Amino acid sequence: MDPVSLVVDTVVLGASAGMKDVASQAVKDAYTGLKALLARRQVDVSGVEAKPESSIQRAALEETLSSGVVDDEVLAAARAVADAVAEHAPDAAGVVGVDLRRVKARFVEIRKVESAGTGVRGEDLDVAGGIVIGEVSAGGSDPSVR
Fold it and tell me: Which residue range(s) make up the domain with 108?
């Protein structure tokens, strides 16, 4: 996973896990540190925090981060969030990938999923024509996301 995508996914992960009342202090502290570092670099993550599932908000953050904001310090802070979530709130990663439940369709096609947690999960699917899933990168494929 490229560094910008890693930071975007980690902001989504931190926003999803860190904003919950049940999140551990380690997750909250790591995410607060990442947010403060990004804020000092004039990066606003409030759009992703408000709508972590929004591909538009993620794309906007990715565009901002692509302007050279991501360096070793930002990557270290992002990895600290990912590590804290993996240890203290592993279920939070589910929000990053694709989670289909009770879907009834003729055909389902999913392309290019990058997730720090589960890539694609389906439950109670009724698909008459078929399913195509491609280009999924999830969980253990990138040790920097663990």
Answer: 98-139
Tokens representing 50 are: 């408000």
Whether 56 is covered by a domain: the verdict is yes
The pLDDT confidence band at residue 145, using thresholds 50, 70 and 90, is very low
Number of domains in the chain: 2
Q: Assess whether 72 and 14 both reside in one domain.
A: yes
Give the Cα separation of 134 and 45 in Å (integer): 29
Query: Does residue 97 contact residue 16 with C-beta atoms inside 8 Å?
Result: no
Q: Are residues 62 and 28 located together in one domain of the fold?
A: yes
Residues 55, 121: one domain?
A: no
Contact 17, 89 (CB under 8 A): yes
The position carrying tokens 């408000």 is: 50
The SS3 call for residue 20 is coil
Supply the pLDDT for residue 69.
92
Whether pTM > 0.70 for this model: the answer is no
Q: Say if 20 falls within a structural domain.
A: yes
- The two tokens of residue 14 are 């931190």
Q: What is the SS3 string spanning 53-100?
A: CCHHHHHHHHHHHCCCCCCHHHHHHHHHHHHHHHHHCHHHHHHCCEEE
